[in-house]
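Let's practice the habit of predicting before peeking. Look at the sequence and jot down your guess about where helices and strands might fall. Then scroll down.
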Amino acid sequence: MVQTIEKSLATFLEGDLGEVEEAIRKAAATEILPRFRQLAADEIVEKNGPHDLVTVADRLAEEQLTHALTALLPGSVVVGEEAVHADPSVLGALGGDAPVWIVDPVDGTRQFVHGDPGFATLVCLAHRGELLASWTYAPALDELAVARRGGGAVLNGVPLRSGSPEPGRELTVAISHYDFTTDEEKRVLATLLTDGVAPRPCGSAGLEYLAVARGTLDALAFSWENAWDHAAGLLLVAEASGASATVAGEPFRITGGNALPFSAARDEKTLGHILGLLASAG
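Done guessing? Here is the structure:
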């Protein structure tokens, strides 16, 4: 059975994966964009506080993607943000034998709710913790970034390269938003308030990863590890020639248990600098 799944996955990955893009665009077109700037008050719900929101668009888009993606790859399963919120045991699939679609239907729900186009739909295909392919789609901006393990990354079909920051220039770094951090996390992230570094609160995590991959943001430093927020972006940055690691200098594991915070950056030198500052917090 395991060999059958692996053969099916290998065959799937050898294709052009265009049907995945179509499924993502369709979910956004039918469930997300029609509600952008059109949400009624009763279509917005607080999950864990006033800054942690979910909308009917999140739930319906995830349901549609779950059906579509598992149909494209028989034997696969979905770990979606809303499914995990309803049943945390769903997370166990990240360490299982089945290929896993990791889905964040609306990454940046707060932006979506407030009419800001800076939100995205994130999808990543993984197997036994290895990131294989990812899609970062900003429907209101009409931008789609795709990465394939060992195959590079593209944005709207154009190859992505993160490049390196100009020597001597101040580094721009997106960090975990203050509304979602503990006092201890704020203390550690405050190590980036130093000469040569300009930290700012992050928006949509997926779009911050895209900014690193395209070279318009030098690095990011995050203090939480939800797989649906990071899987797609980590592969995107890696395939655009960027780098990432936890504060312990280890690869980020989508199955959890990471030393936090962690960082992704345009190149290894920048990553090392940011991690060094974070580690100085002790």
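How did you do? The chain has nine helices and 14 strands.
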